[in-house]
Structures are given as structure tokens and as C-alpha cells.
Amino acid sequence: MIHMDRITKDCLPTPIQPGLALTALAPMQDVTDLPFMRAIAHYGSPDYFFTEYFRVYPDSRLDKHILRSITENETGRPIFAQLIGESVPDLVRAAKELSQYDIAGVDLNMGCPAPRIYRKTWGVACSAIRLKSTAF
Ligand SMILES: Cc1cc2nc3c(=O)[nH]c(=O)nc-3n(C[C@H](O)[C@H](O)[C@H](O)COP(=O)(O)O)c2cc1C
């Protein structure tokens, strides 16, 4: 049995309103950048934010534009860094780099259905491959 209250308490940032369901601004590529998050925070922050996804591949560097939404986050609310890619060692490397910044956690995108993404076996294709490799 999974105790959701315990998971929330141990793993997620403290909610704005204790006792209420947590809220998050869903990550949206080319939308949820720093100015967008500032605008949302102006009207009322969710409990936490997500960055746009950092593209991860051999020799990739953390995108400076996306990194700004972490380093210049003035919303007062924690932010999770989203990654997309298929190379586990490179995803681990990027997650380690990101852990030097003020993030609440790392979120791996395994759901993006855009053809330009899944053709690289990223996003939803990544989860299909993982599921396939664990299928009986
Ligand atoms: C323009 C656009 C870009 C999106 N980009 C991402 C993304 O980069 N990463 C991700 O996990 N989801 C992305 N999504 C999915 C959203 O985060 C969200 O899961 C989806 O819109 C469903 O939200 P809802 O359950 O609140 O309706 C995107 C959605 C839209 C409309």
C-alpha cells in the first residue's frame, strides 16, 4: 500500500496551503519560461513550477535560457528541472549538473508526443522503449 500523505511530506515541497491538494504549473516547451512564470506568480503562484525541458545528448550543455528560470526564480516557490533525452549516462550527468542549482528535483520527460521528439527516441518513444524492454 502506498501512503500518499507520507510521499508528499517526504518528497515534495511544503505546500502553500497545508492540507490542500498540491498545485503545479505543467511544463510547456517554449511557453513556461522565466517571464511566463513571473507573470503567473504575479497573479498567484502554484505550489511548484517546472522548467521547460533541457535537451540532453552526448556533450550537451545546460541551456542557458532555461537555466535562467532556475537561477532567477523569484517566485518564492520551488522549481523542478525537466530533462528530455534517451542516453541514461548523459541524463545522469545533466541531473548531477542541475543538482548544483537550487532545484526541488528532476523530472524526466517520457511523454512528449511531438514527432520531432519521438523520432529521436526521446519523450514518449523513450517510455515505449523502456516499457518494451521490461515487457514479459
Ligand atoms: C504547448 C505545450 C507544450 C508542452 N510542453 C511540455 C513539456 O515540455 N514537457 C511536458 O512534460 N509536458 C509538456 N506539455 C504537456 C503539459 O505539461 C500538460 O501535461 C498537458 O498540457 C496536459 O495538462 P492538463 O492535464 O493540465 O490538461 C505541453 C503542453 C502544451 C500544450
Short characterization:
By secondary structure, the protein is α/β, with parallel strands linked by helices. It contains 6 helices and 3 strands; from the N terminus they run ααβαβαβαα. It has a 3-stranded parallel sheet with strand order 1-2-3, covered by helices on one side.
Report on this model:
With 136 residues, the chain is of the alpha/beta class. It has a single domain, classed as Aldolase class I (TIM Barrel, Alpha-Beta Barrel), CATH 3.20.20.70. Helix content is 38%, strand content 12%. The chain contains six helices and three strands, in the order H-H-E-H-E-H-E-H-H. Strands 1-2-3 form a three-stranded parallel β-sheet, with helices on one face. The longest helix has 11 residues. The protein is globular and about 40 Å long. The protein starts with a helix and ends with a helix. Flavin mononucleotide binds next to strand 1.
Entry keywords:
single chain; 136 residues; alpha/beta; TIM Barrel; three-stranded parallel sheet; 6 helices; globular; binds flavin mononucleotide
SSE blueprint and pairings:
Layout: H1 4-11, H2 34-43, E1 49-55, H3 64-71, E2 79-84, H4 88-98, E3 105-108, H5 115-118, H6 124-134
Parallel strand pairs: 1-2, 2-3
Flavin mononucleotide (FMN) binds at residues 26-29, 31, 52-53, 82, 109, 111-112.
